[in-house]
């Protein structure tokens, strides 16, 4: 089983490209609850091609045409390493080995960390060469992936050079990103094209660091031509309980994001024009931006501004028998009037996987 709703994008003709999650979280061993195991330690996350088969009353079925697992240039498949060390350097370069290591599903032997493993969460593209951007939660990092699943390069925070990875790694992201909260790295990816540049961007799911009352998350962008950092913008969530679960490009300088908490969520449109790029700011590598008391206006920093596109629960949809899942984790712009949303079913724990296609009366997704 797999979770196919963590990220996705529209291709054409009723076809979508989905992204699987990593293996499910560790569980207790049946014979000894002091030990834990990974249900699918050799599971390789990747992309899946989905085909929408329309049905009656606006309801249809999604069929999977093919699966595209991520792999290194030697065709070595990526897998899902243990989560116990929380994205630390020891975990990612596979030198950690101790009592926190996971066991296989039969709890008979230990499973070592995969030095190229990834927790895939967000998908954007395709780029002109047919490749895609995958947002990854462990590092957190951004990966450029060929159409056949080959990892072309992984952009990671500077402390995480992943020396034993079996594909190219560029540790160019800000070091402070390793302060991401547990299981709260990049959950979304999108593309921007300002001034003829090609930027790959990810949004942190939640604020960095331990400050519980923080509501500011970082939007991090890499220039794919220069293979270097291009921008860091700051975005304020509606409240401290919300998180960003998905994003999709709207225009050359704009994107949409899904901000949610449990069964309530909002899709916002965002134009980066006018927001302050804090790349190079003396406080970039600190947690000052996450402080609830930080005076952005006094520091001359303009945050990204959000414009509401869709919110749920939604009476208009529910009156037509469409009730969105409580765990929506994917959005994709289909055209200026159409938005696709998908849920994460947690490997069947949350029921079936769905793709919801919403068409607006006006071209609300037609941004510059």
Key traits:
368 residues; mainly beta; five-stranded mixed beta sheet; four-stranded antiparallel beta sheet; globular
Describe the structure.
With 368 residues, the protein is mostly beta strands. 2% of the residues lie in helices and 39% in strands. It has two helices and 24 strands. The protein has helices at residues 89-92, 315-318, and strands at residues 7-10, 15-19, 27-28, 36-37, 46-53, 61-69, 102-103, 110-111, 120-124, 132-136, 141-145, 151-157, 169-173, 186-192, 199-204, 216-223, 228-236, 243-251, 254-261, 264-271, 305-312, 328-335, 338-343, 355-359. The strands form seven sheets. The chain has a five-stranded mixed sheet, with no helix packed on it. It has a four-stranded antiparallel sheet with strand order 1-2-5-6, with no helix packed on it. Strands 14-15-16-17 form a four-stranded antiparallel sheet, with no helix packed on it. Strand 9 and strand 10 form a beta hairpin. 43% of the residues are buried. Mean pLDDT is 84; it is low at 1-5 and 81-100.
Helix-strand blueprint:
Layout: E1 7-10, E2 15-19, E3 27-28, E4 36-37, E5 46-53, E6 61-69, H1 89-92, E7 102-103, E8 110-111, E9 120-124, E10 132-136, E11 141-145, E12 151-157, E13 169-173, E14 186-192, E15 199-204, E16 216-223, E17 228-236, E18 243-251, E19 254-261, E20 264-271, E21 305-312, H2 315-318, E22 328-335, E23 338-343, E24 355-359
Parallel strand pairs: 12-13
Antiparallel strand pairs: 1-2, 2-5, 3-4, 5-6, 7-8, 9-10, 10-11, 11-12, 14-15, 15-16, 16-17, 18-19, 19-20, 20-21, 22-23, 23-24
């Amino acid at each position: 089983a797999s979770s196919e709703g963590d990220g996705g994008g529209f291709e054409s003709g009723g076809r979508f490209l989905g992204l699987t999650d990593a293996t499910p979280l560790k569980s207790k061993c049946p014979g000894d609850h002091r030990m834990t195991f990974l249900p699918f330690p050799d599971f390789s996350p990747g992309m899946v091609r989905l085909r929408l088969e329309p049905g009656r009353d606006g309801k249809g079925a999604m069929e999977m045409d093919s699966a595209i697992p991520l792999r290194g240039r030697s065709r070595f498949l990526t897998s899902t390493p243990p989560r116990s060390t929380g994205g630390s350097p020891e975990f990612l370069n596979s030198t950690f080995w101790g009592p926190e290591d996971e066991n296989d599903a039969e709890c008979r032997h230990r499973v070592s960390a995969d030095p190229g493993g990834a927790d895939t969460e967000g998908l954007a593209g395709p780029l002109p060469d047919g490749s895609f951007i995958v947002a990854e939660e462990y590092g957190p990092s951004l990966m450029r992936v060929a159409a056949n699943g080959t990892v072309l390069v992984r952009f990671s925070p500077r402390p995480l050079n992943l020396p034993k990875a079996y594909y190219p790694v560029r540790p160019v992201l800000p070091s402070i990103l390793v302060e991401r909260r547990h299981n709260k790295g990049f959950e979304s990816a999108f593309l921007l094209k300002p001034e003829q540049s090609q930027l790959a961007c990810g949004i942190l799911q939640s604020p960095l660091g331990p400050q519980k009352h923080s509501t500011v998350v970082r939007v991090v962008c890499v220039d794919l031509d220069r293979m270097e950092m291009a921008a860091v913008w700051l975005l304020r969530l509606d409240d401290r309980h919300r998180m960003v679960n998905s994003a999709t490009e709207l225009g050359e300088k704009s994107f949409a994001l899904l901000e949610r908490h449990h069964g309530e969520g909002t899709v916002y449109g965002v134009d980066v024009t006018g927001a302050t790029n804090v790349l190079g700011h003396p406080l970039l590598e600190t947690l000052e931006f996450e402080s609830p008391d930080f005076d952005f206006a006094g520091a001359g920093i303009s945050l990204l501004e959000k414009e509401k596109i869709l919110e749920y629960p939604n009476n208009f949809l529910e009156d037509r028998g469409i009730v969105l899942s409580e765990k929506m984790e994917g959005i994709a712009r289909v055209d200026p009037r159409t938005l696709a949303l998908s849920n994460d079913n947690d490997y069947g724990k949350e029921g079936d996987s769905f793709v919801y296609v919403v068409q607006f009366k006006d071209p609300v997704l037609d941004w510059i």
